[in-house]
Amino acid sequence: MRKFYEQLLENNKEWVEKSLALDPNYFADLAKGQTPPLLWIGCSDSRVPANEIIGAKPGEVFVHRNIANMVVHSDMNMLSVLDYAVNVLKVKHVIVCGHYGCGGVKAAMGNMSVGIIDNWIRHIKDEYRLHDKYLNSIEDETERFNAFVEINAKEQVYNLAKTSIVQGAWKNGQDLMLHGWVYGLNSGFVTDLNVNIASNAELDEVYQLSNL
């Protein structure tokens, strides 16, 4: 156990040395501040590293991760990240990226209790209920699982669009576009789900806030 921990510290030293060898001002430039054009909302799964997937460098992606890449309207952690990214960093894109094989989505499709996370997964179960006719019509279990992963990512994009943070930015004329992706663990490729929202016109009227 201790050997693993000590190796992490050694890895850090090697990374610093390699980075400075390529650019002596690497860390000095990073310390000056950040102006990332993108907020990434992804899953906590250790196999889905935001920067590496899109070939981004440190400072280019602002990141929020949680179980099953959820956008929950009462989650102050996510809302705080979103508010800072949109209103302070002025990001121009927000990507919600799910991934095939997501354990949180899989758990939401069954009835087994997995502990305190049951309360979080309940939000995903609500989505299944909204799309149960379509999902239950898919006989192949793997195909149904993949379809639900995609649906979950799409729903989170719409949840983003419903927030007062995003709608306030649009009302103020800020360039901000929301996107939904799914990452393939077994291929490395992302799938664009073709849900790209740049105004509240694509939302049901009841979600369009008019007094911001």
Can you walk me through this structure?
Its cofactor is Zn(2+). Belongs to the beta-class carbonic anhydrase family. Its EC number is 4.2.1.1. The protein is an alpha/beta fold. The protein has nine helices and five strands, in the order H-H-E-H-E-H-E-H-H-H-H-H-E-E. The chain has helices spanning 2-22, 26-30, 50-53, 76-88, 103-108, 118-130, 132-136, 141-161, 164-171; strands at 38-43, 61-66, 93-99, 177-183, 190-197. A five-stranded mixed β-sheet has the order 2-1-3-4-5. A hairpin with a 6-residue loop joins strand 4 and strand 5. The longest helix is centred in the N-terminal third of the chain and has 21 residues, at 2-22. The protein is globular. The termini are far apart. 26% of the residues are buried. The mean pLDDT is 95.
- Strand count, sense and closure of the main sheet? 5 strands, mixed
**With helices defined by DSSP (H or I, 4 residues minimum), what is the helix count?**
9
Instruction: Give the low-pLDDT segments.
Output: none
Q: What is the mean predicted local confidence, pLDDT?
A: 95
Strand order of the largest sheet: 2-1-3-4-5
Number of strands: 5
Computed CA radius of gyration, to the nearest angstrom: 19 Å
**Order of helices and strands, N to C?**
HHEHEHEHHHHHEE
Distance between the termini: 53 Å
What proportion strand? 15-25%
Query: Would you tell me the structural class of the helices and strands?
Result: alpha/beta
